């Protein structure tokens, strides 16, 4: 029945610092990494724009020769916007632009044909690259931004339920443990686990998305540099027909651009921003190691929990289930002990101080009471719940805990014979009517998985001197003693036959 707990890593756990796995709601902004990448893309867009402007101005310079070329220099004379994203040491993008500025100053002549080639061949390379960077920025905002919103929404939901757990654990302490089944801190804690699991799944999904974006950025920036290098190489070939001096100057610009390693800028960027980037080697978060307020409050720790079998009223067969007795004095029934597949909600909840417990018979025992899981306004009738443990030792453990919390206990034990429909004897009309009005706790006639019909009345073996099980329990609860009669599975000799009342199975 135990499910595998999911794990996660904090969404913005960085290479230099990883958030504590003990925080259910990490104190961090999921959008910071996305903003950082968006700024970097804007830096590349401006870099592309600078190159586009440079080629355009060069094309104009071909018509105006030396004097007009001063306009070209102005296009790259200002520092790059978001220039702090580039390594300022020699050998990077910033050094490449500085080299362009120095070589452009020495170019004096150009030709009209060169201007045509620059406009029709070289400029489109950088324009397409600029378009690719813009598309990458839109893709980032549309994809990673949506994942961050989903994480924030999931964290808000988890926080609300953690606060709800705090309220009800405080109420448990202030009322001495008397709470409703719906407000049982144990149930609320399992609800927190369910929502925390969903939150962690959203965080892990967003983390994987951001890692993919981060990895794709390295490849994308290498592509940008390769495209820039390719464009400048083509540019060099176009101006190669110019004077040797001009050719050498442009060749120097190209050589400088090509000398930038594909991962030079990226490695420098990672080093400078290690506090904000995600460390892929950081361990995932785990629900088993995540804590939250009141997680180990005494009201959330079951007195006993495990697997029991309960006898169904329709088929009479025992079906397994997960049961737990909480400090709030409730016996909760669940289908499984899994908190993660869906929001756990008890099938039945018995408030043991209001219940009657039959005597232990080997591995079997019975509890009679009302299902309290329907709340204050829910309609619930008294039912008899028959349980069977896997071993006699387990039955003793369960019986000991339940019996210590139950309102009253019956000394009747489960019998091995299957009870038949009772027959009302002569002169016992009033007793039969009382038996139909108050059904006794059924603690006899349970054998294996056979179907047992609950009798509506039992005929005592000796006239009107006997008392039914219900009368005996009532007398025991009030402090008086009464002789409990022996029940007979067959009609008494000399009694008039009466049609047995159909056994109506309790609603489970």
UniProtKB/TrEMBL annotation:
<feature type="compositionally biased region" description="Low complexity">
    <location>
        <begin position="1"/>
        <end position="19"/>
    </location>
</feature>
<keyword id="KW-0597">Phosphoprotein</keyword>
<dbReference type="Pfam" id="PF20399">
    <property type="entry name" value="PH_20"/>
</dbReference>
<feature type="compositionally biased region" description="Low complexity">
    <location>
        <begin position="451"/>
        <end position="462"/>
    </location>
</feature>
<feature type="region of interest" description="Disordered">
    <location>
        <begin position="1"/>
        <end position="31"/>
    </location>
</feature>
<dbReference type="InterPro" id="IPR046869">
    <property type="entry name" value="SLM1/RGC1-like_PH"/>
</dbReference>
<dbReference type="InterPro" id="IPR046868">
    <property type="entry name" value="BAR_4"/>
</dbReference>
<feature type="compositionally biased region" description="Low complexity">
    <location>
        <begin position="410"/>
        <end position="422"/>
    </location>
</feature>
<feature type="domain" description="PH">
    <location>
        <begin position="301"/>
        <end position="407"/>
    </location>
</feature>
<dbReference type="InterPro" id="IPR001849">
    <property type="entry name" value="PH_domain"/>
</dbReference>
<dbReference type="InterPro" id="IPR011993">
    <property type="entry name" value="PH-like_dom_sf"/>
</dbReference>
<dbReference type="InterPro" id="IPR027267">
    <property type="entry name" value="AH/BAR_dom_sf"/>
</dbReference>
<feature type="compositionally biased region" description="Acidic residues">
    <location>
        <begin position="20"/>
        <end position="30"/>
    </location>
</feature>
<protein>
    <submittedName>
        <fullName>PH domain-containing protein</fullName>
    </submittedName>
</protein>
<dbReference type="InterPro" id="IPR043453">
    <property type="entry name" value="Slm1_PH"/>
</dbReference>
<feature type="region of interest" description="Disordered">
    <location>
        <begin position="410"/>
        <end position="483"/>
    </location>
</feature>
<dbReference type="Pfam" id="PF20400">
    <property type="entry name" value="BAR_4"/>
</dbReference>
């Amino acid at each position: 029945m135990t499910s595998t707990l999911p794990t996660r890593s904090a969404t913005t756990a960085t290479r230099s610092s990883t958030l504590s796995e003990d925080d259910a709601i990490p104190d961090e902004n999921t959008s910071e990494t996305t903003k950082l990448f968006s700024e970097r893309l804007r830096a590349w867009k401006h870099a592309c724009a600078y190159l586009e402007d440079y080629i355009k101005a060069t094309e104009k310079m071909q018509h105006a020769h030396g004097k007009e070329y001063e306009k070209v220099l102005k296009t790259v004379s200002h520092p790059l916007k978001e220039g702090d994203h580039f390594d300022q040491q020699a050998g990077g993008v910033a050094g490449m632009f500085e080299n362009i500025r120095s070589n452009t100053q020495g170019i004096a002549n150009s030709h009209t044909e060169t201007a045509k080639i620059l406009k029709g061949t070289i400029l489109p390379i950088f324009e397409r690259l600029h378009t690719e960077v813009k598309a990458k920025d839109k893709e980032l905002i549309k994809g990673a931004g949506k994942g961050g919103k989903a994480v924030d929404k999931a964290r808000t939901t988890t926080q609300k339920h953690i606060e709800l757990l705090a309220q009800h654990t405080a109420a448990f302490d202030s009322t001495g443990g008397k709470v409703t089944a719906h407000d049982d801190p144990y149930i609320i804690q399992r609800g927190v686990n369910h929502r925390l699991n969903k939150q962690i799944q959203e965080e892990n999904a967003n983390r994987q998305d951001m890692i993919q974006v981060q990895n794709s950025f390295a490849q994308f920036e290498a592509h940008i540099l390769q495209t820039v290098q390719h464009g400048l190489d083509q540019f060099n070939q176009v101006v190669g027909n110019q004077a040797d001096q001009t050719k050498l100057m442009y060749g120097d610009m190209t050589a400088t651009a090509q000398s930038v390693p594909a991962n030079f800028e990226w490695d420098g960027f990672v080093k400078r921003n290690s506090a904000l980037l995600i460390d892929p080697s950081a361990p995932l978060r785990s629900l088993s190691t995540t804590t939250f307020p009141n997680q180990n409050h005494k009201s959330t720790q079951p007195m006993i929990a495990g697997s029991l079998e309960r006898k169904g009223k329709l088929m009479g067969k025992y079906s397994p289930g997960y049961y737990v007795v909480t400090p709030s004095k409730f016996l909760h029934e669940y289908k499984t002990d899994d908190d993660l597949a869906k929001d756990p909600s008890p099938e039945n909840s018995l408030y043991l101080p209001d219940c009657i417990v039959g005597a232990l018979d080997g591995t079997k025992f019975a509890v009679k009471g009302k299902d309290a899981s329907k709340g204050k306004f829910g309609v619930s009738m008294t039912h008899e719940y028959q349980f069977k443990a896997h071993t006699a030792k387990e039955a003793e453990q369960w019986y000991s805990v339940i019996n210590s919390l139950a309102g009253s206990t019956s000394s009747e034990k489960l019998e091995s014979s299957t009870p038949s429909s009772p027959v009302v004897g002569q002169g016992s009309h009033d007793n039969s009517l009382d038996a139909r009005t108050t059904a006794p706790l059924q603690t006899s006639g349970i054998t294996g998985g056979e179907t047992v019909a609950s009798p509506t009345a039992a005929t005592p073996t000796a006239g009107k001197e006997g008392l039914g099980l219900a009368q005996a329990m009532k007398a025991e609860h009030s402090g008086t003693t009464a002789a409990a009669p022996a029940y007979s599975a067959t009609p008494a000799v000399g009694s008039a036959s009466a049609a047995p009342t159909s056994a109506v199975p309790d609603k489970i």
